[in-house]
Amino acid sequence: MIEAVSSQAELLTDVLKDVAARFRGGFSPLVVFDIDDTLFSTAKRHLRILRELSQEQVWAAALGDIKEASLRYSIVDTAKACGISQPPQLGAIREFWVARFFKNDYLLEDEPLPGASAFCRDLKEGGATVVYMTGRDETMREGTLKALAGRGFPPPDSLILKPRFDTPDLEYKTESIERLRALGSVTAAFENEPAHINLFQAAFAQSRHFLVGDKHSGKAVAPHPSVIRIRDFRRFDIMPVQ
Ligand SMILES: [Mg+2]
Question: 26, 41, 47, 82: least CB-packed within 10 angstroms?
Answer without folding.
Answer: 26
